């Protein structure tokens, strides 16, 4: 099966499970640096947007090292970090629509911040994340998150999710990394699966 087919299978499996749980917010969370979660989140969003009856929102919450804009070839996008801080206008004014996929919108930072964990643990950010999902009328929101085993920024975002997909480097990661990550995620939203990126997409 080619990569596109694998992402289609992953999409369908996740949508089925999220539907059973009534979940709309999926956090795509790398275990460590270089796991490729941005690649997984972007391709999962594109695969989901191919279902024309679904509206998809893709959000880059890797505030310390945002790369989704580069992954999608987007530039000149508005910065939505002030929105998370409680400043700025409506989320709809900050969204970028992917021209090839009329039902896919993105919210992206325009620069890194070294206070990502603090921003995400502020009650204003938690309220704003909830508001943007509701106000956008999206069927599913996919969030690209920071690595859990690098800083607390990734952990800070997890309580705002309804469900989590872990991404591990299938060539360099270890079973201990996965176990350490799962321990840190105790009492967090449900884990739907682990993607072994660069090895077997549906590992």
Please outline the helices and strands.
Elements: H1 3-21, E1 25-30, H2 37-49, E2 56-60, H3 68-72, H4 81-84, E3 96-97, E4 104-107, H5 116-121, H6 123-135, E5 140-144, H7 153-157, E6 163-169, H8 175-184, E7 191-197
Parallel strand pairs: 1-5, 1-6, 2-4, 2-5, 6-7
Antiparallel strand pairs: 3-4
Describe this structure in words.
- The structure is a single chain.
- α1 (3-21) packs across α2.
- It contains eight helices and seven strands.
- It has 203 residues and is of the alpha/beta class.
- It has helices spanning 3-21, 37-49, 68-72, 81-84, 116-121, 123-135, 153-157, 175-184; strands spanning 25-30, 56-60, 96-97, 104-107, 140-144, 163-169, 191-197.
- The longest helix is centred in the first third of the chain and has 19 residues, at 3-21.
- The chain has one domain: 3-Layer(aba) Sandwich (Rossmann fold), CATH 3.40.50.
- It comes from Paracoccus tegillarcae.
- This is Chromosome partitioning protein.
- GO terms for molecular function: protein tyrosine kinase activity.
Primary descriptors:
203 residues, 37% helix, protein tyrosine kinase activity, Bact_polysacc_biosynth/exp, alpha/beta, 8 helices, Rossmann fold, P-loop_NTPase, Chromosome partitioning protein
